[in-house]
Structure formats: C-alpha cells, structure tokens
# Entry
Amino acid sequence: MDPTPAKSKQSVLAAIGLFFLAPLVAEFLLGNLSITMLPALVVLAPSYGGGALLIRELARRSGRGWPTVVLLALAYGILEEGFTTQSLFNPNYLSLNMHLLQSAYIPALGIGGWWTVFVLALHTVWSISVPIALVEATVPERATTPWLGRPGLWVAAVLFVLGSAAVTLGSYRQDHFVSSTAQFIAAAAAIALLVFAAFSVSNPGGPGSFGLIPNPWLAGALALVCGSAILMIPPRWGWGAVGAILLIELGMAAAVLIWAKRGGWSLRHKLALASGATLAYAWHSFTEPPVAGGTGVVTRAGNAVFTLGALALIGFAAKRSSAAMGDAAD
# Structure
C-alpha cells in the first residue's frame, strides 16, 4: 500500500495545527489575551501562524534546521514589533500607558533596552520556535521534511501578508503612531542581516561527537527555569534586566548548540525544551493581567483551559515521538 496519501494527510494536518497553535501560544497561553478574545484568531492566526509556517517551510525546504528557524524567528519578531505593531518605538503602545520603553531607554535609537530584548525573546522562542517544535514532535516521520507544496506555501504567504496588514491597520487606528524613517530603515536592515545569516549558517546535524547531554527531563526542567526567569525579571532592574535576559538567552543557545552536535540528541530533547518553555508560559498566565478581555473568573478559567490543552498536546507529542524512536530502534 502506498504510504504517500497518509503522509500527505499528516503534513496538511500538521500545517493547520501550527497555523492555529502559534497564536494560541503567543497570545492566549501567555495570558496576554483572555479566552473571551478567541474570535481575534481570525486576524492573529494568519499573522502568527502564517509566519510560523513560512519560517518552518523555508528552513525545511532549504535543507536547514533549527539555527535557521531561530534566526528567522528573530527576524519575524523585529518585523512584528518594528513594523506591524511598532511597539519597539512607540512610547505609549496602543495608549495602554505601560511605559514599555522607559527601562534602559536608548535615546539615540528611540527604543527601550529591556522591552527590545524581552519582546524579541518572546517572539523568537514562544511565538515561533515553540509551536514549530511541538507540532513537529506530533509527526516525527515528517519532522524535518516540508509539509506544504508550492501552492500551500503561496497560500501561507498570502495569509501572512493579509494578517500582518490587518494587525498593522488595527494598531494604527488605536493610537495613530508612526515610527521615524530612520527607525524603519534600521529595523529593515536588521531583518535583512538576520535573513542572510539564517541561510548562511550551517546545520549542527551530522555524525554526533562524543560528549554528555542532559536527559530530556533535565533539558525540559532547564527550559522551564530559564523561561520562567525571563518572564519574571522585573523591568525596573533597567540594564541589569537587559543583561540578565541576554545572559539566559545566550547561555541556553550556546548549550543547545553544543548538545545538538553530540550523539544521542533527539527529537525528544527538542520536545522537552519546547515543553519546558510552554509550561513557563502556562503558569505565568495566571499572574498576567490581560491587555484585552478582562480579568474575571472567565479569564482565569480560560487560563486553566489553555494550560490543560498545552499539557494534552505535550503528552500526545511525547507519545508520538517516543513511539517513532522505538520503531526506529526495532
């Protein structure tokens, strides 16, 4: 029996899952939006999900792996916050009086040091990388292969453009803020450099070198601790907060790059890292006052729903990836 139809169906389901999981993690699991704001997925799914799909497909189609995904995810974060919402440069984003740029403010650039490293970490890790890793673990046989044909890729691109345009228009209508030409140019240059680097960097794959790696449980616990620390570091620390976030990010990146080159590093380790980061968002959602949708009992019940959903997805992905590795061992 030809397995191609089954694999094709798997790929389509995985692509659809990623399309909706990305915004659910980025905004709802975080607690930034209440469950009452679920209709906003009409706009958020094309923006977040379309972006995650494009990044994943471009990386896999070019035969590249996680270094490319992460660099493109960082470029996505700059696009989102530098052009779409412009929160990197807006001193009163959406007229919410959150004073995002005050901590470690850099007058020459018109940005806040803390907000820049913090929000770009959120997008790089949670908005893009975590959803991709979780969904890939649910289809281990297709984890490193493209899921979309050329027509599907074009559909994802169009949806991403439309979703980003809708978010941009909505943000502008809220407070009519427009960044300076110099800020737009700087953001565009940063995106271009990251995209160039993403398709220039080499994969850590290949024959594994000798060396110790953590077991998946320890890797997941480390991701949970580091992710929680990033979320908990108070902006009032100023440049101390900037340094602490960068230290955690660079330390984790260096450790994962080293482990990924060693024998024994597997899909289960990648799932463990994504799961730890996911759980950091989940517990933090119960302390996060949503920017939209209220803070009542319904919202907290929604936090519980999203947390249980995340746990169910992690369990399903763990079962699938473990079964695949068992089959490979046989």
Summary: The chain has a mean pLDDT of 92.
